[in-house]
Amino acid sequence: GKVLVNDQLIERTEAVIDIEDRGYQFGDGVYEVIRVYDGDAFTAEEHLDRFLQSAEKIKMKMPYDKQQMLDFIDLLIKENHLHDGSIYMQVTRGTTSRNHIFPGNDIKPVLTAYTKEVERPKEKLENGVKAMVADDIRWLRCDIKSLNLLPNVLAKQEAMEQGCYEAILHRDGTVTEGSSSNAYVVKDGKVMTHPATNLILNGITRQVILQLCQANQIPVTEEAFQLEDLRTADEIFISSTTSEVMPVVQLDGQSIGDGKPGPLTKKLQTLFQEKIE
Ligand code: PDD
């Protein structure tokens, strides 16, 4: 397939990234994952706004504006005949002789993007998934969608080894989010999720879910909750671009509610489905 390197759409086999690319050496860059449904990039503008914000937060000047990147996305979808899948996009601080200090303005950031065909995780959305709890050992700027994902990778690997789909993270007992998702509990008909502070990534799916709650009179609060609230929740779900509204039916081997996706989670799934159709 075709991939984007800076503003050039080329064959993947022709793409060259230098071994001293700062993304490769320092994880010095930011990224986005955007879902494509039936040839349309879902909430692309919101993702690109966050992409630009992430770049700004690490003091990187994005080489292209939002409209140019929207055009790149459309081009990638068309050229690769992508119907249902995802777009991965990242920008690094460029290539220079290895040095922690930022390169000068003559060194341009390196933008890369590619597409992938992916089915919606229908079976998991229907039946729910298992999750485990893990320590949140990440840095204090989790609001930045940084390329540095080692703590997330370690947590997800641990989850996989325990037969779980996701690791839900906590800092000293306060639940933050999943290793690659946002986390929610439902208690007495009310949805709760960690506020969008420096301790979580403000998920685009999370923002869609909050809007859906507000528009449909579903009580929701952006409020930190504890591990105890998670373990005794009526329902748990997680959300991300690729996982959508995903029910969690087991936590550390214990059933949540009756061990099936709960009514509020299912209601939000229906509302979300209507948005992507
Ligand atoms: N992950 N929190 C973290 C730590 C994430 O990595 C993600 C997304 C989310 C959900 O954000 P959104 O709804 O905007 O996808 C929350 C992507 C999908 C990934 O790294 O693959």
Automatic annotation (TrEMBL):
MF GO annotations: transaminase activity
Residue runs in coiled coils: none
One Pfam family from the record: Aminotran_4
Necessary cofactors: pyridoxal 5'-phosphate
Gene3D superfamilies xrefs: 3.30.470.10, D-amino Acid Aminotransferase, subunit A, domain 2
Highest taxon listed in the record's lineage: Bacteria
SUPFAM superfamilies: D-aminoacid aminotransferase-like PLP-dependent enzymes
InterPro entries linked to this entry: Aminotrans_IV (IPR001544), Aminotrans_IV_CS (IPR018300), Aminotransferase-like (IPR036038), BCAT-like_C (IPR043132), BCAT-like_N (IPR043131), Class-IV_PLP-Dep_Aminotrnsfr (IPR050571), D_amino_transT (IPR005784)
Signal peptide: none
Enzyme Commission identifier(s): 2.6.1.21
Catalytic activity: D-alanine + 2-oxoglutarate = D-glutamate + pyruvate
PROSITE patterns per the UniProt record, alphabetical: AA_TRANSFER_CLASS_4
Keywords: Aminotransferase, Pyridoxal phosphate, Transferase
Keyword Transferase: yes
Subunit text: Homodimer.
Role description: Acts on the D-isomers of alanine, leucine, aspartate, glutamate, aminobutyrate, norvaline and asparagine. The enzyme transfers an amino group from a substrate D-amino acid to the pyridoxal phosphate cofactor to form pyridoxamine and an alpha-keto acid in the first half-reaction.
Family as reported in the entry's similarity comment: Belongs to the class-IV pyridoxal-phosphate-dependent aminotransferase family.
Protein name: D-alanine aminotransferase
Gene: dat
